[in-house]
Amino acid sequence: MILPIYSYGHPILRQKTDEIDANYPDLKALIDNMWTTMYNANGVGLAAPQIGLALRLFIVDASPFAADPEISEDEKQVIENFKHVFINPTVIEFGGELTDFNEGCLSIPDIRGEVTRDDEVTISYYDLDFNHHQLDLTGLASRVVQHEYDHIEGKLFTDKLSPFKLKILKSKLTQIEKGNIKIDYPMEFAKTMKRNNNGKSR
């Protein structure tokens, strides 16, 4: 099932998220719907707050980045198989050099910006079967995970942009809040609280 993605400005994207119990009802169906929703919107990651649920849960499939001719062969091999479900994740450590990358977000359509992040992250999490894992990530895998982790912490990539860049984007961000945009996937808008199911602005 394709679910609506909640837009910039919606309070759910700033809400504190709760851990998921192993007995959470229909968890597999929820995650299946998240995959369907993410792929329908051509995304590489999706967090539960983006579908209106204040849960510590996100998914990533960074394989589309493997088509980028500028990444190294070593990183390509990591990225093309990097598909995970992260339940109750906790970042243990950030490290490495600071790097910049042009990020976007399904909750903030048609807006991108240079975001500085640590190149390395160590994250602890549970998979769909509630097996525990710990990953040491670098490069694009690290960045995608950090972006989605921010979502369950109530943060957005726009929080990391400069005040000057945000000033330039203010009008566009306001239009997204109001639903005055054209998109090709369903969204739930902040100010109208109306759902866009047909890819047209409201």
What does this protein look like?
The protein has 202 residues and is of the alpha+beta class. It has a single domain (5-196), classed as Peptide Deformylase. The protein has four helices and eight strands. It has a five-stranded antiparallel sheet, sandwiched between helices.
Strand order of the largest sheet: 2-3-4-5-6
CATH superfamily: Peptide deformylase
Main sheet: strands, sense, barrel:
5 strands, antiparallel
Tell me the count of domains.
1
What is the CATH topology descriptor? Answer: Peptide Deformylase
Poorly predicted runs of 5 or more residues: 198-202
Structural class: alpha+beta
Task: Tell the overall outline.
Answer: globular
| Cα-based radius of gyration, to the nearest Å | 16 Å
E-strand count: 8
Name of the level-1 CATH class: Alpha Beta
CATH architecture assignment name: Alpha-Beta Complex
Give the end-to-end Cα distance, rounded to a whole number of Å.
22 Å
* Helical run tally: 4
Assign a percent range to the helix content. 25-40%
Instruction: Quote the beta fraction.
Output: 25-35%
Order of helices and strands: EHEEHEEEHHEE
